[in-house]
Specification:
Layout: H1 14-28, E1 34-38, E2 52-56, H2 64-82, E3 87-89, E4 101-104, H3 109-112, H4 119-135, E5 138-141, H5 144-154, E6 161-163, H6 177-188, E7 193-197, H7 206-217, E8 224-228, H8 236-243, E9 250-252, H9 261-266, E10 270-273, H10 282-289, E11 294-297, H11 302-306, E12 311-313, H12 318-329, H13 346-359
Parallel strand pairs: 1-2, 3-4, 4-5, 5-6, 7-8, 7-10, 8-9, 10-11, 11-12
């Protein structure tokens, strides 16, 4: 199992997917040996059971040319040494060697929006991914949208791709009005707030959220905006938008640990998540389970995942985001908890992953 993205206090996106699913597979299958391959030293928090064996493989794979060394040299060498049956890679990478391997490709952002990546990384993913697909024994992804995108982009047969999904934890649920007021007091001095959760990255359209909120502020003096996430690279568009921000009403609170996230979601007036492109969008589920309305984008996987429970906007049109903000704070809430949300549990995702593993020969 490729566990390179199991990094303490940095479990975001694919790292969270890796953690939640691998932990459940280890516990559900004590009869199986799981060998965790990382480029960092073994840590006790990833020792999910006595059937886990952690290995640190050289070199540290933190740059494109080192990715090739790690996956094409270190991984096959260790697999052969340990006589391992299957290599599972949950982060879009695969080894360009003839080994039995299951590769999880979450989305094709790098194919459709290379402008959102550092050029050397965009080039790496655009050139390597077709090779990974060629060498992978089987492919998995996280949504029907991404599955169809893979099929269309690389001329793949749909029966060779499994949809695993993502999930949410039981800690994501509504809170009492007293808890909500206390959280608002801690974060904004007691003012209600709109919320964004995720990396502060151009693909997430965080600058579009800030621009929309600035326009929203012209007619609304009661709500603040919270940005919860780490800043990625030199996000000049966001920096420029923040320069024109409503003074004192936008709060950058950084990355939130898992124990604090549910309360922040449940105390928000709405989650604002109008990304330009997503392969899934875990925050949509987490907000929904907390009873918090969602503003998200038309198209991509977000329309599929929200499935009629969210306000859908064109992420390129600021006025549509503003309109949705105004409607929500005016009480026009388009939110309904749905039984189908239970399809997106980490337990069901882990079960689908196991079934995909069994299909990989």
């Amino acid at each position: 199992m490729n566990t390179r993205l199991l990094i303490p206090n940095r479990l975001e996106g694919i790292g969270r997917f890796t953690y939640e699913i691998f932990k459940r597979l280890v516990i559900a299958h004590p009869e199986v040996e799981f060998h965790f391959f990382s480029d960092r030293k073994p840590l006790p928090e990833w020792q999910f059971g006595s059937n886990v064996f952690q290995h640190c493989l050289f070199p540290p794979a933190r740059r494109p040319f080192l990715f090739d060394c790690w996956f094409d040299w270190a991984v096959p060498r260790k697999l052969k040494q340990l006589k391992i049956d299957l290599f599972v890679s949950p982060d879009g990478h695969a080894s360009r060697k003839k080994i039995n391997q299951l590769c999880v490709i979450h989305d094709l952002n790098f194919m459709h929006h290379p402008e959102f990546l550092i050029p050397q990384y965009a080039k790496y993913w655009r050139t390597r991914t077709p090779e990974f697909i060629q060498y992978a024994t089987r492919i998995a992804t996280v949504s029907e949208f991404s599955k169809q995108d893979l099929c269309a982009t690389f001329s793949l047969e749909s029966e060779n791709i499994d949809v695993i999904g993502n999930g949410f934890n039981s800690s994501f649920k509504p809170v009492s009005e007293d808890q909500k007021k206390q959280t608002q007091l801690e974060l904004t001095g007691g003012r209600p707030y709109l919320l964004f959760v995720g990396s502060l990255h151009p693909r997430k359209n965080v600058h579009g959220i800030v621009e929309a909120f600035n326009a929203f502020c012209k007619k609304n003096s009661t709500h603040d905006l919270i940005l919860a996430g780490r800043l990625f690279w030199d996000y000049s568009e966001l920096k420029n938008a923040l320069k024109n921000a409503c003074t004192g009403r936008i709060h950058e609170i950084g990355f939130l640990p898992n124990e604090k996230l549910p309360g922040v979601y449940a105390s928000a007036e709405a989650l604002v998540f109008p990304s330009f492109y997503e392969g899934f969008g875990i925050p949509l589920l987490e907000a929904e389970m907390c009873g918090t309305p969602v503003i998200t984008s038309k198209g991509s996987a977000m329309e599929e995942i929200s499935n009629g429970t969210a306000w859908l906007v064109n992420p390129y049109k600021t006025e549509e985001i503003v309109e949705a903000m105004n409607a929500l704070v005016a009480g026009q809430r388009k939110i309904k908890l749905r039984d189908t949300g239970m399809l997106y549990t980490w337990e069901s995702a882990a079960e689908r992953m196991w079934n995909s593993i069994l299909k990989t020969r």
